[in-house]
Write a structure and sequence with these properties.
This protein is mainly alpha-helical. The chain contains two helices and no strands. The chain is globular.
Length: 79
Amino acid sequence: MTMAAAPPAGLIDATRCPLCGEQNRCAMEVERETGQAQPACWCMQIDFSNAPLTNLPEEMRGLACICARCAAGAPQAQD
């Protein structure tokens, strides 16, 4: 299996999980985009120890939040 090259930072959608592509619902990103105060984000209270962060290429880390499902290490639903 070949890995696609990571897109440049400007092309990463910070509202989507870089692991699965689903919306990450990050309150901090919503606040940054809208300028409207948001309640504390779910990501500030979750245990990320089961997250498959090693599946994320180094150059894509820190550019977008992963979603709650990926953070929990839950498998992606099959279509």
